[in-house]
Amino acid sequence: MTSPVPILSVQCGKVRSFQGPDKPSAIAKVPVDGPVRVHRLGLAGDEQADLTVHGGPDKAIHHYAHDHYGFWSEVLGDHPLLLDYGAFGENISTHAMTEETVCIGDRYRLGTALVEVSQGRQPCWKLDHRFGGLPVNARMVKARRAGWYYRVLEEGEVGAGDAITLLERPHGEWTVSRTFGLLVAGDHKRDREGLEALGALDVLAEPWKARRAKLLGI
């Protein structure tokens, strides 16, 4: 197993007007001081505006690699959102964990909580709006740097300075990057066999199981 990875920051956000009052969002997440309770549906004090596409047990916590901020600085320039944690609406920030090294079904000790990787993030238009109209969404899909979600298996607490430690990796062939490629970035067009094989991944979140079925036409 890999060594524990220090958590750089933990972010939470409240629902607020985003693109007018009829389109609220909680994507503007800010660092939290001290420990935060980890519940089955996410972090205490964190909110989601549209529960049909955000939150829920399979998308309780969003983790994004702070390693990617250098890439985004090259793409977007000196954007003020990149000066702090939480620019992409993530709850957990670390170095040394990316979509290429994290796998669906991985179980981690997150602070004192136990979490499991359920799916990659599927970015949307809200990222473009958050960055003032810059094409973040499309660039994120192309670069396959969207982050991933956890479901919470055991509640606990987590805070900046705590560790995240890999405990189990039952599906080492299914990295977040590979799965994202098949279901979001278009790889299914040339790898139908891989898309079919993904059906054996029982720990995959239900929304992505449905997306796989749709892409297969079943």
In terms of topology, how is this protein built?
Blueprint: E1 5-12, E2 16-17, E3 24-25, E4 30-31, E5 36-39, E6 42-43, E7 61-65, H1 69-76, E8 92-94, E9 107-110, E10 113-120, H2 125-130, H3 136-143, E11 148-154, E12 156-158, E13 163-168, H4 176-183, H5 192-197, H6 206-216
Listing every helix as H and every strand as E from the N terminus to the C terminus, the arrangement reads EEEEEEEHEEEHHEEEHHH
- Category from helices, strands and their pairing: alpha+beta
Main beta-sheet annotation: 7 strands, mixed, barrel
Broad CATH class = Mainly Beta
Tally of contiguous helical segments: 6
The CATH architecture would be: Beta Barrel
Going across the major beta sheet, what is the strand order?
1-8-7-11-10-9-13
Which descriptor suits the 3D outline?
globular
Content of β-strand? 25-35%
- What CATH calls the topology is M1 Pyruvate Kinase, Domain 3
Beta strand count: 13
Report how far the terminal alpha carbons are from each other. 37 Å
Low-pLDDT residue intervals, each spanning 5 or more residues? none
**How big is the Rg?**
16 Å
Helix % is 10-25%
* Mean pLDDT across every amino acid position: 95
Domain tally: 1
The CATH fourth-level homologous superfamily? PK beta-barrel domain-like
